[in-house]
Amino acid sequence: MKISWGARGGRFKAVAVLQGQDEHLLFSQSFFGFHGKTEERLAVFTACVNSVFSVYCLYLSSGRLASYRPSLRVNDVRALPMPRTSDLSLGSLRNMSLEQIDNTVFDLYELNGVHRALVGDFFDVTLQDFKTIQTTPGMRPVWESSTSASALDTYSDWFLRVLQSGFGSDKGLCATIFRSPDPSAFPFCVVGIHLDWARSERIRYEDVRDGNLLGALEQCAQDELSDSLETQAEAIYYRRVSRIYQTLLVKEGRKKRNVPTVFLIKPNQERYWTRSVALRDADNVLADLVKQGFPDQPNEETRLA
After folding, report:
1. What is the pLDDT of residues 253-284, one digit of tens each?
2. Of 266, 304, 301, whose CA–CA distance to 155 is shortest?
3. Is 193 helix (H, G, I), strand (E, B) or coil?
4. Is 173 strand, coil or helix?
5. What are the boundaries of each domain within the chain?
């Protein structure tokens, strides 16, 4: 196993040596040598080290790796948890792609969808933002075209799933993704989470043509810094994200009613709209709603950082 993290692939690398080839091994200070009692145990260790799961675990547990040098000490590797049982063989591992290795390791650790999302977002977005000086995936615009943004669809879906688990499956929840005339060039993305609306479309797009609203959002991105420290602390320029709790007047048949809605306004960059961020944002919103007494006594409007 090579002790340093590979910047090109973003992973660690371990190679299993077959029996009868050990006489050719010579370890330098750049490599660790490990042995296993059985072929299955060695195959599991090799797969885990080469997977994104090991990158996630080791960056969380190794202070040296995360903040000093991108290399490991032997105790860091020994602390890496290993599955107890597996029928994985070196022969099957040899023919696997990196994606197949990742999925196999996820299955070995019995990771659920939430855990896999946390690991995936860390490897694909957070780590790249942390380690790469040039333009990173997290800084890419969310909108893939002028009509759709899959990242916002996924974000909204995960957000609603968290709220649904808290309020119950019988609670009407849906989301609206607001689309500007030129969304790819617009500085912010806006998503509305409706808390009591059993709409047929769980997630839908809605075009925004209000010039005053669009102008206000663009102004937020272009405003110069104020001389007042108090104003700076409250400015969206510093905060970059905003949650607005408001009621939205909707029409259902011949009746109109107010629907409690949370508007999420964040920059048009992918790192603000990942699955893991949706989990965190939904937890924060759920905590806010409980404090406000929702659904019994929701506040008319509240703005939080």
Report:
1. 778 888 888 989 888 889 999 999 999 999 99
2. 266
3. strand
4. coil
5. 22-136, 140-304
